[in-house]
Design goal:
By secondary structure, the chain is an alpha/beta fold. The protein has a single domain, classed as TIM Barrel (Alpha-Beta Barrel). It has helices spanning 17-21, 57-67, 87-107, 123-135, 159-168, 190-209, 212-215, 230-243, 278-288, 310-314, 319-333; strands at residues 3-8, 27-31, 37-42, 45-51, 71-75, 112-114, 141-145, 147-148, 151-152, 171-175, 220-223, 270-272, 293-294. The chain has a five-stranded parallel sheet. A three-stranded parallel sheet has the order 1-5-6. A hairpin with a 5-residue loop joins strand 2 and strand 3. Helix 3 (87-107) runs parallel beside helix 4 and helix 4 (123-135) packs parallel to helix 5.
Amino acid sequence: MRVDLHTHILPRTWPDLRERFGYGGWVRMVPEPDGCSAALMIDDRHFRTVEANCWDPAVRLEQADRAGVDVQVLSTVPVMFAYWAKPADALVLARILNDHIAGVCADHPGRFLGLGTVPMQDAGLAVAELDRCVTELGLRGVQIGTHVNSLNLGEPELRPVFEAAAELGAAVFVHPWDMLARERMERYWMAWLVGMPAESSIAICSLLLSGLLERLPALRLAFAHGGGAFPGTVGRIQRGFEVRPDLVAVDSTVSPLDYLARDGRPAQIYVDSLVHDPAALRLLIELFGAERVALGSDYPFPLGESEPGALIASLGLPAVAEARLLAGTALEFLGMEAA
């Protein structure tokens, strides 16, 4: 069985939000003449071109069947988070996206599971929409960005959202977005190659060092793209915790390494397997445990894994560990029975 934790989907259409709300910055989808693709536009700027597999469940299922993927976990494209917008307006978009994902899951039971999106710039609205996602729409949790405007995820203003997720038993999947220092990374696609891993590492450090997981040990957090740069720099982060506690260990009594796999127990946080390198994937398994590494492909985008699960299968892991990575870890993270 293969459960792909990290896939993105959009509705085929949604309202013109610039016209509705009277200001720009919103994403719109403009069909291309070929009828099989569309341009995602932010005002008059081209963001990316997407194909029918980004919105058509039938195309997704056909491609999933060919790849041997049994279940896709659906989440929106991160550019749709709209944390920069007025909170009430971002909530309107979130509800459109969440209703769409819930509908796709309902139409294809057993093949799709869903994660919603919430307006993180207003904790109260985010908590209410998180509750609706889980209790009314049947989604397994939410996908959030690595930061909320100027706030890192460990800041107190965002804590109510994580508290609500823990209380609801909702999974929280953290995906990099709106990468830092974009003006220095315009060439060579470096925002995606360097900025994304840095974003994920900042998010993990902020959450761990804030002491959030000390207060909410039942909270299920997963980080896309293998946790970004964090696995490769955790030794340096740990060293800072030890030698400069006056700067690093100010809000947490638990060291970064203590959140990772130790003494036969898995890590307290999850990551997906999307690292494109066998040695990097083995490092993830060593740091987090097979019980905390889940298949993730970033379908349907080109920087993802073109054959979901191929890297996992290439390692020659024991059957139990391979099954965990291919399906069991994702199901457990989503609050379902592990395979």
